[in-house]
Amino acid sequence: RNFHNSTNYVTDNDIKQKYIKDSLSCNLDYVYINYSSIPDSLIEVDEESILNKYNEDKESKYKRDDYRTVEYVYWENEIKDKDSLDYFTRQQELSDSAKDFLADVDITSFKEALKNHSLTSDTIKVTETFTQNSGIPYKIGFNRRLVRFAYDNSISTVSDDIETDNGIVVMHILDESKDQYKDLSEVKNQIKSSILKELKKEYAENLLSNLDKNWDISSNSDLLKIEKNQSNKIKGPFQGINSSSEITGTILALDQGQSSLVGSDSRNSFIIKVNSKDELDSEEFQAHLEAKKLETYKRSSQNPYTVWMRSKQKSTENEFYGNEIY
Questions:
Q1: Which of 112, 200, 277, 306 has a CA 20 to 30 Å removed from the CA of 229?
Q2: Helix 245-253, helix 12-23: angle, nearest 10
Q3: Using alpha carbons only, what angle is made at residue 37 by residues 31 and 42, rounded to the nearest 5 degrees?
C-alpha cells in the first residue's frame, strides 16, 4: 500500500509553481505580432522547400498503411434476428452454397467458378490496422478471421467459407502493397501551410528583434501591436496575446522592470516587460501547501493501484501487436 501511495506524490515545488501562476498578479507592457495578421504575400514558399519538407517528413507522416488486395464473394443473410432458428438455418444454406462454389474453384479457377455460379466479386484493400474496419466493408459484418486470412496466407490463396454476423464470405488474395507513400501532390498544400506558418514566425521574430528599446512601431504599425499596463494573474490571459506556457514562463523568469528577449508561441511572437509582480507570501503559501497536500492524499488514496498503473504506463515503452495476432 505504501509503495502504491508513493506513486501519487506531488512535490512541494509543483504545488508552489501552480500557486504562483494561479494566485499572484502582475502588470505588463508588451509588443507583439499575431501570425495571422501577416499577409501570405509577404512570405515566399518555393517548390524546393516544399519538396525538402516532404522528404524530411515522408516516413513519419506520409507513409500509407501496407495492404493486401483481396477479391471476395459475399452471401448475405437477409434475416436480421440473429437469435432465431430461421437465421441459423439460412446461415447453413449460405455456407452450403459457398462450399459448392469452393468445390468448383478447386476444379477450375476462382474466375471460372464465378461464371459457373453466376456470382460477382468485389475487391477491397485489407490492412492490419483497426482503423476503418481494416478495410472490410461494414455490410459484411466484422470477423477478425478475414484480416488474419489476408495476412497469414500466400498470394493467390483462396479461403474456406468464413462466417460473419451478416452472412458468409469467401476471399481470394490477389496482391500486396508495401512501403507506399502519399504522393507529394496529395499533401502539397498541407506542407505549404506548415512552412508558411514557420516562416511567418521567423518574419515576426525578425521585426521584433529590430525594434529599438522604446518599441517604436511606426514603420510597421499594421503588424506590430502594443499593449500597456495590462494586469492579470501570471497565468493570464492577456489582451491580444491570450495565454500560453511560453508567455507564463517568460513572466516567471523576469523581475520587476525587466524586459524579455523575443519569445514565441503557436499564435504570436512577443517582447514582454514586467512593470510589477506580486511577491510570494510565505505564510499564505505554507497554509495553501498543507491544504493541497491533504487534498491530494485523500484523492490519491481512494484508488492507489490505478494511479500506480498509470504512472508505470507513462514510464514504460509500449508496443502493440494485437493487430498482428487477432
A1: 200
A2: 100
A3: 110
pLDDT value of residue 297: 58
C-alpha triplet 126, 139, 66: angle, nearest 5°: 10
User: Residue 95 burial (CB < 10 Å; 0-12/13-18/19+)?
Assistant: middle
Give every CB contact of residue 27 below 8 A, 6+ residues apart in sequence. 229, 230, 231, 274, 275, 276, 277
Looking at the chain, the whole-number percentage of residues with pLDDT higher than 70 is 88
Exposed (0-12), middle (13-18) or buried (19+): which is 29, by Cβ within 10 Å?
middle
- In whole angstroms, give the CA distance from residue 206 to residue 216: 15
- SS3 category, 18: helix
User: How much of the chain, in percent, has pLDDT values that exceed 90?
Assistant: 73
**pLDDT class of 219 with cuts at 50, 70, 90:** confident
Q: Please give the torsion angle defined by the CA atoms of residues 218, 223, 224 and 229, in that order, rounded to the nearest 10 degrees.
A: 110
What are residue 270's DSSP bridge partners?
32, 263
pTM as predicted: 0.66
**CA 209 to CA 250: how far, in whole Å?**
16
Tell whether the model's pLDDT for residue 207 goes beyond 90.
yes
Q: Cα–Cα distance between 236 and 251 in angstroms, integer?
A: 10
C-alpha cell at 292: 493541497
Question: What pLDDT score does 6 carry?
Answer: 47
Estimate to the nearest angstrom the gap between the alpha carbon of 51 and the chain centroid: 24
Read off the C-alpha cell for 131. Answer: 482503423
Partners of 25 in the β-ladder: 233
